[in-house]
Amino acid sequence: MKTFIGDDFLLQSEAARILYHEHAKKMPIFDYHCHLNPQEIYEDVRFDDLAHAWLGGDHYKWRVMRANAIPERFVTGDAPGREKYDRYAEIMPRLIGNPIYHWSHLELIRFFGIDDLLDPTTADAIWEKANAKLQSPAGSSRSLIQESNVRALCTTDDPADDLRWHKALAADATFDVRVLPTFRPEKALNIVDPGYAGYISKLGAVCGMDIRTIDDLKQALAQRVAYFAEAGCRLSDHSFGSPDFTVWDEAAAERAMRKALAGETPDDHETAAYQSLMMDFVGEQYADHGWAMQLHLGAIRNLNTKLYRVFGADAGGDSIGDTITAASLAALLDRLAVRDKLPKTVLYPLNAADNDKLAAAAGCFQDETAAGKVQFGAAWWFNDHYDGMIAQMKSLANIGVLSRFVGMLTDSRSFLSYPRHEYFRRILCNLVGGWVADGMAPADYDLLGGMIEDICFNNVWKYIGLDR
Description:
Blueprint: H1 14-24, E1 29-31, H2 38-42, H3 50-55, H4 59-67, H5 81-91, H6 99-112, H7 123-134, H8 141-147, E2 150-154, H9 164-170, E3 178-180, E4 182-183, H10 186-189, H11 196-207, H12 214-230, E5 235-240, H13 250-261, H14 268-289, E6 292-297, E7 299-300, H15 305-311, E8 319-320, H16 326-337, E9 344-349, H17 355-363, E10 374-376, H18 386-399, H19 419-437, H20 445-464
Parallel strand pairs: 1-2, 2-3, 4-5, 5-6, 6-9, 9-10
Antiparallel strand pairs: 7-8
């Protein structure tokens, strides 16, 4: 059976169709937050087969496979790729309503020209056709990126990384896509993690110093921020659950670090004091370098202890956590703003109950230094679906300024995930086109088309500073 994804998929009005086909569709992609491996891009890796390209490292797919009682051997285990793929094809008809159903079929159409529904009856033909491309020059990682009209992308990188692959890519004139690092000091801020002391030792070795105090750590992180800036970095990234940035206690922050380096666990007050102090410091560093600071908020990690013990982090055991308090977020942003050290900031809530709260908070810290300086960011992770994207954009439109939105990102480890940008763009055009159809916006396609093009690409290109 042919898929339901035609030219006008998700476009429910004439205005939506005009906005998508004449404006959104032609825009290039700047994937400003992803988890692709820069070494794999530099080496232009090939994939063994569709299972390798599609299922490897994708915890979205792992979760739905487990929900359908697929044995772990066919999810993350040692089963042959074809057998994993067959089990995925087996459950695909069960996934109607989940965004993976849409994403998977979009990926088959856009990359492989396959417009059949995936199920056990079509699995053989789809496997053969997809593998034929993946094993050809057109199926390499670089080719897939270029085919998707990607102009630039930002990976996610640890401060201790030497960025050798980013430097090699920057020097490679044969690849015209800019691949920039993102500074993510997650391990330096997660002071309750059992691996904290070992990580601080590693960071110190990279910086050529012994890190024993918060001042030492600040010196090391400042050194690495400068190093990343030299390699073209324009963004930082942070992920928190429900942090309390209202706590400001320098003595408690120092105690937290001493305890953690000694293998002890800081208490909640000490942890909050440490994170508040360090986020204030790195935020100022980002402002001084003209970077944007991304804050991912509301995740609760590794709920399934058994799963975590066997497979580690990022295996599909994370979930939506509690919301951040308005006072906590305001404390962090305000401390920086009063010193004129608040960087451009993108706020991503994992708990949709935070949508209006974050959109409203963002509006309190706008200024003349950048249009949309503090962004209410794209629907993230468990919100990255039809309803979640609409809810995020409606909150932004109602409370902020939708036309300044920096748009979509993949947040993905897969080279096949770029149709998620198309998915977002169709939903965006359908939302705005619906306003036209309902008489809530003018049928001025120069005006609205320019807005759509800005959200799809132009805004983020300027926001990150790649227009200069």
